[in-house]
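Subject: sequence -> structure tokens, single chain

Hey, anyone have a minute? Need the predicted structure for the following. Not urgent.
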Amino acid sequence: MSKLEDCLKVLDKESVYNILHARLKGSEKKLSEIPPPSMLKNAKKAAKRVADAINNGEKITVVGDYDVDGICSTAIMVLFFNKINYKIDAVIPSRFKDGYGINKNILKRVDADVVITVDNGITAVEAADICNERGIDLIITDHHTPPKELPKAYTIVNPKLDECIYPFKDICGAEVAWLLLAQIKKELGLHINLREFVDILSIAIVADIMPLTDINRALVKDGLRALSSPKRASSIIIKDFLNKPQITSEDIAFQIAPRINSAGRLAEGELALRFLTAESTYEAYELFEKLNRLNETRKYEEQKATKEAIELVDEKDSIIIVAKEGWHEGVVGIVASRLVDRFEKPAIVLTVNGEDAKGSARSLAEVNIYELLSKHKELLEKFGGHKLAAGLTIKTKNIQKLKTELNKTALNLPKSDFIPKNDVLGILRGDDIDFELLDILDRFEPYGEANSRPKFLAKDAKVLGVKKFGHENSHSKLLVRLSKYDKVTHEFIVFRKTFENLNNKHITFSYTINKNIYNNKTYIQLTVSNIYDKV
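Reply:
Had a minute. Here:
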């Protein structure tokens, strides 16, 4: 409760507006203000090579990744080349057969003069050497943190490269690919409006947890407008599935991204690529139904692994590391996110297969999980990622040592690094929770990383009733009076948690305020984020 001490100020609607306005001051950009792609180091060289390949009729292959960003990056590339009637091959690696990114397994089935990676490749030293041996010009486009030894590729486009002057570094793989296409368009003198890809681009930005500031904010706002008035077959199906007039970043994060991700997690990412590039709504619908079914399987595997992982957590650790045989490789990243949410600490979840273990890391606030892992890379077989998320492979015998060493290193981090900024704004009177407040909150959409949806504190609120709902009654609705001075009561939703004997008790919790549209009617939805009492 100590970190809530600064959040006990009672707010009114005007103060909520002022806080949110100040939070975004200076971080708004228009699409017209996006820095030119030529500022990306090597973008001109890469674009010239691709333009020459097109003019000379050479074979081009794009190699993506099996997560949302990688699939969206590949989809944008495919759609661009389709638009100029130039046939290319596109490969989404299989998590299970190929492993991550471009590698020797992928290159065995690639026949090309030019290979372009999207959202991967910055650590692909071996693959670059193979390309050089075969006379393939490898163009790497990526956004992950570069290692000290870079691949000997034809060229590398990555905003995090040394000497890259691109002014905004925190962009996802799809944005790097999109910017390269803008440079290719210029090189070829094409008249293509690259804004037509912002619907897919916004999905990648949100799903890859990029900060929703600067150019990311401008692109996501435009992308959400495109998804809300869709023209692309896949976007029409997304809009139809969500069944609401305006799509938000949270709809992408919690509804759409998991379904696109499910293909690469449980089957083949190629399925999601086909969905995003479908030419008809019939084809898109059929593919989306398959993604839905995979997502149901993913949820089952994830819930099972999460329950087991929670039991293995040592709450004394600053960095959580859990490992077990039998966990599905495709859900460990989601399980890590669940642990971060529950314990408010970075988490690494590993699935063990004999002598080897493979998994994902997720972080929060200012704890840079990539930098932490890099300090102990001698214990790892391989790893890659960025500030808030990483993937790693490790020998099973080194897991305990990694756990020990990471937690030693974490002792040197300031405690404030572990606390999300702007986590709780303050306390609201129950009477102030109305549609006028909802309109104020809507003005500062989209919410996400670096602009989180505001949380408010309910302090010693009285619970007047509890109801279970949802699949297997696994969720709860609490009827609450926020203060004894309030004239109104409010219903709060608590996902994935049920309660016994909570009636007439007082609890303290944080919550968010959302707009929920059902049957063309708008409702205020109050969702509990954290409960600070033992209940």
